[in-house]
Amino acid sequence: MLARHTLLLSAQVLERTGQDHADDASASKSVYCSGVNIVDGLKRVIIGRKLASTQLGETLLPKRIALPVFASDALSSVAYAPDEILLTLSLAGLAGFAFSWWVGLAVALVMLVVVLSYRQNVHAYPSGGGDYEVATVNIGPNAGLVVASALLVDYILTVAVSVSSGVQNAEAMLPFLKGHEGPVAAGIIFLLMLVNLRGIRESGTIFAIPTYCFMIAVIGMTVWGLTRIFILGQALHSPTQDWSVVGPSGYDNLQGLAMAALLARSFSSGCAALTGVEAISNGVPSFREPKARNASTTLALLGGIAIAMLFGIITLANLTGVRQIDERGGSYFLLPDGSTSHHEAMTVMGQLSHAVFNNFPPGLWFVITCTMIILFLAANTAFNGFPVLGSILARDGYLPRQMHSRGDRLAYSNGIVVLAVAAISLVLIFNASVTALIQLYVVGVFVSFTVSQLGMMRHWSRHLITERDPVIRSRMKKSRIINGIGFMMTATVLIIVLVSKFLHGAYLAIIAMVVVFLVMKAIRRHYEAVSEEVAVTDASERLIPSRVRAVVMVNRLDKPTVRAVMYAKATHPNTLEAVTVAVDEDASREVFNDWETMDFGVPLKVVASPYREVTTPFIDYVKALRSDNPREVVIVYIPEYVVGHWWEQMLHNQTALLIRTRLHFINGVMVTSVPYRLSSSRHQLERLRADHPSAWRRAGVAAMHAESEE
Q1: Does 519 or 289 have the greater pLDDT score?
Q2: Collapsed DSSP state (helix, strand, coil) of residue 671
Q3: b/e sequence 450-486, b meaning 16+ C-beta within 10 Å
Q4: Which of 156, 398, 545, 577 could lock 520 by a disulfide, CB 3.0 to 4.6 Å apart?
Q5: CA 376 and chain centroid, separation
Q6: For 236-257, how does the pLDDT look when each residue is reduced to its tens digit (9 = 90+)?
Q7: Could you read off the pLDDT of 667-699 as tens digits, one per residue?
Q8: In whole angstroms, what is the distance from residue 580 CA to residue 556 CA?
């Protein structure tokens, strides 16, 4: 960096042509600043002003904002988990719906145990590594990578499933969306990406009101519906209550093992309601102090609200006679007039809102609108979890290091963009079909649940060996029991999910996890190999070059070329020569004659090019200068234009870029770019100086100080 800085300052001094010292010092800033252009201005409008690293504390979340930020996925799951339970039970015909109570109760029980277990994780590992850190520390790096690959895949599916479900619910109010679900979902994911690029606190504030409105809508609908049924004695009927459901041939009236298998598959689909519970343990660093306590409290609130909402919806669905069919599975409706229908009915939330608010349309529209919005915003949980986990993995060398960098708004921008691109690809491939995507879902999250709970059991066992305080030991034993129950339950659910969903699409999720696992291992091996290769191992790495041969690339004799020659002479190499490639005989003769006339004291060599190309002959000439002595160095000076507009870059420097790139692969050859600013870049500097006068003055003073030291 110091050598580059010196180069630029020297080139700046050579450019002076009568301008005063202050103006020239200000111009030096152009080398480092791109200026205010259209792209940067648009970026500021969309993303917002840049935040300094010291402002990170301003982005931390209070509990009232953290709840909608990290809980929107888990809360929104209750909007489609009941649908998936009923869709699967429809394969057993109308009799299958009688089991929805028990399936819902089992899902609620698992959620309660998982929430209690993750409260232990939050207190033990508040650094934000979540399940990945728990597994890595207590089981090993490979276990950590298994969890990480499962979570990364699950986060992508969370975005795809949530947005697809939102589009499906939106069709109740906007029928014209039918048949265009994929592109619509992709557009919504893109908008969510833009909002999240503005930073976690700002996106959380934007999403807080819709999330709280959804809670009010579901709880209000449940309370009012139960009040009308049990207190006011009113009979509520869903739009499908009088419809009968017929399972596919061979599935009607299932009994014994076949029914148990169907219940297991229904339970595994309903466990989609648990997705997002782990997000809080991954996002502890985003909470205000005391981080662990606030995260634990938020997790408890999430569990209580989600369980109440889930069981309330299932209770109302049974009381109002909600019916669903799995169109892909082969079940169908038998209507009261004797006709049949193979088209899936309105979602559970849509049917319940029609039943409960049949005499109050504003309530109906409020519930449907809030459900539609929360399903879109549920993806926000993944947009917070995926980038944080990706940053930790990048820090540990398992993902590209760019994933560890924060963007202008202190969000992990690269991770946000990667998540959005992956989710958009999925919704386009599956045309935003929730029924198809849900089969890939849940596997990843229960892999992470299970491995994490096993890791926590080992964590408490390890600490119990050294802990002597009886009070702390008692607390640790209690925590180990909780995590042990969590492990047994999540492992059981994982087995059920794998067995019941494997052939229905879960195998694709498993393949994706394996691919992500292998890619992360390969990235880590690459980083380790590069680190070992570039490490300074002995004194020979610090030897000064014994001989420096300098070559100035000459295309035409102009100011940029003159500057490059003058700078090369100022570095006092052992030998210095200029080289031009004779693509056109007349032009080469003119360059040679002008060179002789100006008499730089530097020989100009003309390289023949029978095939009229510049790059290869010049590269071959430079290669020929290399000797077998590893301490000899060839330095190539290439004049380049500094332009003020993006489109000008396309018109200049292309040959220089190609030559510079190829020279980088030749041992013992170094490349120095000598910039020459065109007038367009000066106009850009004037605009920059007008828009940022205070920063410009500081930059000018710093540049003048640096030159005075020269």
Answers
A1: 519
A2: strand
A3: bbbbbbbbbbbeeeeeeeeeeeeeeebeebbebbbeb
A4: 398
A5: 17
A6: 999 888 888 887 765 555 566 7
A7: 889 999 998 888 777 666 666 565 555 555 555
A8: 8
